[in-house]
Amino acid sequence: MPMSHEMPRSADRDEPHRLGALGPRVVRVAGGIGIAALLASVVLGSLQPDGIERLSRTYLVSFSYVLSLALGALFFVILQHLTRSGWSVVLRRLAETFAATLCWLAILFIPVALSVRSLYGWTQPAADDALLAWKQPYLNLPFFYVRAAVYLVLWAALARFFHSRSTRQDGSGEPALTLSMERWSAPAMILYAFSVTFAAFDWFMSTDAHWFSTIYGVYYFAGSVMGFLALMALAAIALRRAGRLTRSITIDHYHDVGKLLFGFMCFWAYIAFSQYMLIWYANIPEETAWLVVRQSGPWGSLVIVLSVGHFVLPFFGLMSRSAKRRTTVLGLWAAWLLVMHWVDLYWLLMPRWSGEHIPFGVIDVTCLIGLVGVFIAAAARVAARHPLLCVGDPRLAESIALENA
Amino acid sequence: MTGTMSTAVIEEFDNTGVAPRQRAPLVLGEHDLASVTEAVCRVVERPKPPRAWYIAFAVSSAVTGMLFAMIGYLFLVGVGVWGVNNPVSWGWAIVNFVFWVGIGHAGTLISAILFLFRQRWRNSINRFAEAMTIFAVMCAGIFPAIHVGRVWVAYWLFPIPNQMQMWPNFRSPLIWDVFAVNTYMLVSLVFWYVGLIPDLATLRDRATTRIRQIAYGLAALGWRGSQRHWHRYEVAYLLLAALATPLVISVHSVVSFDFAVAQLPGWHTTIFPPYFVAGAIFSGCAMVVTLIVPARQWFGLRELVTRRHLENLTKVILATGSIVGYAYAIEFFTAWYSGNAYELFTFVNRALGPYAWAYWIMITCNVLVPQLFWFKRCRTNLVIMFIISILVNVGMWFERFVIVTTSLSRDFLPSSWDYYSPTWVDILTFIGSFGLFFTMFLLFIRYLPMVAMAEVKTLMPQAHGHGGKGGDHA
């Protein structure tokens, strides 16, 4: 009986599976636009009174955005090894590449680290603020920086671990590398879960240091994975348009990514509903204060936008089989959800500082473009050095042969 | 799994290997399609079950009788026969309800969610797990129903139009629970039944007595196994899996709402819904291991439910157990971080107060013991996994006990604090519910195919002309 035949190791040798000249071009263009936009944001910021504070806040929003995409990628990589996944091998390098930007994101964290005073009220607590005094053993600057360093180093190390082993396998095809990645994926997942949770608490939840929600880490995680899946769909489509990986990534892989995207979009809605409903229902002032700002005035309209745009529309839009199997339709929904994911983070963080009104302006856009540009450039830089496909993965053939019933 | 796969009629062939280039076989031994049918049907078709079955059935139905005696006593005298008191108005009944509903999660997780994730190893255990789910939900449903006090008006739980214009409070999660659990029960039942149809037809075709022929024939709904039947069957199955998936998550989320919408410290926390769902799957998969380890041994199904299946289940237990551990940690951290004196008190009280013994049983069984599953030896050793699976359910029962009791027994007003202890009626009712569960299970094993024959056959190389699709996941 039967065991499955040995699987052939290599993919279609003729298929272009390197970025080639495209790599440096993307790095130049995206990096150039990104840095220009970041500079423009600084100029815009310094033109206004309090403009630098304003900039630091929108920077945190967009930093949380690109960080979430990279963390979503890291989760995807760890999960594929944890489940010994076969179908996803042709996509895994994309995820490894985006995860590998985490060491660059550590540099992008520096502006956040420098503007803690305008971001985190707990750095200058009022003398009579007993609550902040209570939290002081956790929310104090030295410990904050130590924790931030731990998270950033840990993520960079995890991403590097999986990326370097996988690229080493490109040449050798050594199955032992797969086994070692599988073996470490379980502890990696545990480290990932706690580090992402506490980073979300520290960097995002503590902007409103009086408030707390146990599900906050899961909320950030849910959006992150959804955002990354949308990004991966778009990246694969872009590569296909550019004539790369045209045969390895088949329509069945898009279909599967679409299913996961749909699933995590629903998961986000489930987590968002759980948080909202439980706070609303219990109606305890120390918790509702956070929601009141976010659901009154123009922010309240944003809640409707998020409910509809981040859940209801894509729920119906992505449900059908044909939507997930047409790259144009899938790509449009992916792009839409990436926008919604940013809106979600904006809604999550910005009301703390702006109060009743939505301060949306040019500086938000330039700062977002800046960070996304640098992020893409970093990813392209990593991608250019290696094949776009895990060509040495023992399960590559299994992945290429994927067929959705 | 470096050795050859071709001669595997060894006792307990080890298919838990990890070689990445090939997928492990999921059906061992010299099985062909006919022998799989034979192996599964044999159990059901024996003219008489073994003596052990009669003994087990006698014991479990006696215990079920005790359950109904306790319920009768409760109806005659009132809820006062339980240990519930003024602050702790939810005692063992609600603990048992959440415990059983939780166990009822594994079946649909395995049959629906793992199906959508193309985890093909589920094919050999889904029937079994779904049956377990249905019986567990039956046990669960009893407890809130008999807890309502005036049981003769329990039908008020349903929004039945009436001349009094009286409706349940739709804003109460307790009524959402009625809907959630009933919907889940219904969909699980339909899912289970749809999956059974081809196998019922097999039993019909093999029937040697008129009664069996008629009974299985009616249940098989005229299944002939035509191409068209299979096509529609597979579409229906996929749709049901897609519908059942959000239901699995919704049921225990709604159960968690029963607690989390309240303002009571220890109950009100936003992580409750996903945390409860993870805990439910944790306990459900543990119950599957508890039942299937002896069952595969007794009924000669070791080649269909292999070590690899069991190892995969232990990994699900470890993963969901880790999520539960994560939730405990985040809850405890936030109890401190929130700066809320009541919240912090509740958590310190849980760990050090009068119920500390229950809390530490919970931590030991749910967080510490499953760590053994990091070791492959524990994931593949039947005795160890059997013991751990039981401990996990002990721990999960205590988790619900800790949540229900500690928060209620010491709330905001110290003058109303009280200690809760169960009465003999509480204890015997809970034990009785196991009687009902096992009675149903024994009937299931006796009259229905315990392994989904049709689905297992898709795992075999014979089902795939081109070979290579016979292994663990796609």
User: What is the gyration radius of chain B calculated from CA atoms?
Assistant: 23 Å
Mean pLDDT of chain B: 90
The number of helices of chain B is: 16
- The CATH architecture of chain B comes to Up-down Bundle
Number of helices of chain A: 18
> Element order, helices and strands of chain A?
HHHHHHHHHHHHHHHHHH
Which pair of protein chains has the largest interface, and what are the residue counts? A-B, 53 and 57 residues
As an assembly, this protein is heterodimer
Beta-strand residue percentage of chain A? under 5%
Topology order of chain B in helix (H) and strand (E) letters: HHHHHHHHHHHHHHHH
Global Rg of chain A: 22 Å
**First CA to last CA of chain B: what distance?**
18 Å
Range of helix content of chain B: 55-70%
Tell me the overall shape of chain B: globular
The SS-based structural class of chain A is mainly alpha
Q: Structural class of the helices, strands and pairings of chain B? A: mainly alpha
> Could you give the count of β-strands of chain A?
0
Can you give me a brief rundown of this structure?
The complex is a heterodimer of chains A (405) and B (474). By secondary structure, chain A is mostly helical.
How would you describe this protein?
The complex is a heterodimer of chains A (405) and B (474). In chain A, 75% of the residues lie in helices and 0% in strands. Chain A is built from 18 helices and no strands. Chain B has 474 residues and is mostly helical. In chain B, helix 6 crosses helix 7. The interface between A and B is large, with 53 and 57 residues.
Layout: helices, strands, pairs:
The complex is a heterodimer of chains A (405) and B (474).
Chain A: H1 22-47, H2 51-82, H3 89-99, H4 102-108, H5 110-114, H6 116-119, H7 130-135, H8 141-172, H9 175-204, H10 216-241, H11 251-282, H12 285-295, H13 298-317, H14 321-325, H15 327-349, H16 351-354, H17 362-384, H18 396-400
Helix pairs in contact in A: 1-2, 1-17, 2-3, 2-8, 2-9, 2-10, 2-15, 2-17, 3-8, 3-17, 4-8, 8-9, 9-10, 10-11, 10-15, 11-13, 11-15, 13-15
Chain B: H1 33-45, H2 51-77, H3 92-103, H4 106-116, H5 126-147, H6 173-206, H7 210-219, H8 227-260, H9 272-298, H10 307-337, H11 341-352, H12 356-368, H13 376-380, H14 382-409, H15 424-447, H16 453-457
